[in-house]
Amino acid sequence: MKQPGTVGLALALALWLSFLSAPVLAGKVLIIHSYGQENYWTRSQSRGLKQVLNGRYEITEMYLDVRRVSPKALKSRFRQLPERVRALKPDLILMTDDAALLNTGQALSGIAPVVFLGVNGSLNDEYAWVGKNDQVTGVVERPLIKRGMIELSRALGLGSSSTLILIGDNEVGDLIWRSDLDAREGMSLEGKLEFVVRRPKHLEDWQQAVREAKAQGYQHLWVVAPFSLTDRKGQPAVTEDLVKWISGHADLPVFTVHEDLISRQRFTGGYVIDGEALGVEAARIALEILEFGRVPGTVPVRQQSVMNLLFSKKRLARWGYRIHEQYLGAYRLLY
Q1: What's the average model confidence in pLDDT over 256-263?
Q2: What is the CATH number of domain 145-256?
Q3: Rounded-to-integer distance, Cα 181 and Cα 122, Å
């Protein structure tokens, strides 16, 4: 015959042991993403952040989804964000990409320390306020187009060449053009790599530029920030459709700074930022603040440290390229 209360005692003991074995989280971290949850770049950065912070902190993610929300709805979303953040009471806020930081960074830094990542704007221009705010630091993103052109030329033995760079007429394109190319419309690198920059406004302008590039004497195309485009009637263009159209209609090899635009059905290759590594770098800064008590303003803003040469094997074969032996092991290859 069981003693009275035995079952209750066993249950209480099991609950107590479960409590003891559960991880004790050190605090709350809020990640605010500029883009939607399905965005490849967003997911890549998120993986890097969680690689460091999972199991140590309670993590909440918000998605502003700026590429798919109307301007009116977006303004409302930005306006309401501080109230939503206060209700969560985070110990630290991580912000990915420019839209989040540009529109809400200063306001949110009054609620909790802010660490940003993946932003393209200049610390002397768009983000001049960061240097005056002791609650903000992070990792800036520099696509390094010029450096990428040099590395690709060496890796593929391109020799002297003329390249057309098409940069989207959008916020991201503006920031990259100014911060990475000094808003220049062309230049020569190492005395042999010539490039010209164009900023097509509408979908039809992009298509025309691609169709005419070879006849105009260019040997390569670079595509940067082909996002949030519309046609001349004002109808939104689907980025994936445009990328596949360019891949199928360009008479030249196409390179890019965006990892998710490189594949057998998209572009040939590029010099790309590793979003996951970027997330790891930003998360380590967050730990300096959360676990070692560093004031964000005393942690220097850094530039991403990991860049990758990335190629599609099928697209390389399509253009007859072979990677120089000195680059063996220094690139990633996709099918």
Answers
A1: 95
A2: 3.40.50
A3: 12
